[in-house]
Design goal:
Length: 113
């Protein structure tokens, strides 16, 4: 596997060479960027990194956004940073997480997509 590390113009750090297409992915929210890392043979872990100032660490805090299967070209919601969850449609994801929102009918009216 070829390893590559570079900062993309849309605030993305790619640490593995892959056919993953960033132009089809979310734009990073202001103050955030994305990183991908090899999770296992066919799965990439996608991380969202917060570039705000924090007094407790010099490292950039990051959270798992979700996972991507390079063979099947499918996205997965995270259970946690070490466990792949259920398949999700990319259209149902948000820039901050691949986890689906479970909204009541009232919340669906209040928070439309």
């Amino acid at each position: 596997m070829n390893v590559k590390s570079s900062m993309k113009s849309n605030s993305v750090k790619e640490s593995v060479q892959t056919d993953f297409v960033w132009s089809e992915f979310h734009n990073a929210p202001k103050g955030y960027s994305y990183e991908i890392e090899q999770f296992n043979r066919n799965i990439l872990a996608i991380w969202i990194c917060n570039h705000g100032e924090f007094s407790y660490t010099n490292k950039t805090p990051k959270s798992i956004w979700g996972f991507y299967n390079t063979k099947k070209k499918e996205y997965y919601a995270p259970i946690d940073s070490k466990k792949v969850g259920a398949i999700v449609r990319f259209e149902d994801t948000r820039p901050y997480s691949a986890m689906k929102l479970t909204l009541t009918p009232l919340e669906q009216c209040m928070y439309p997509k």
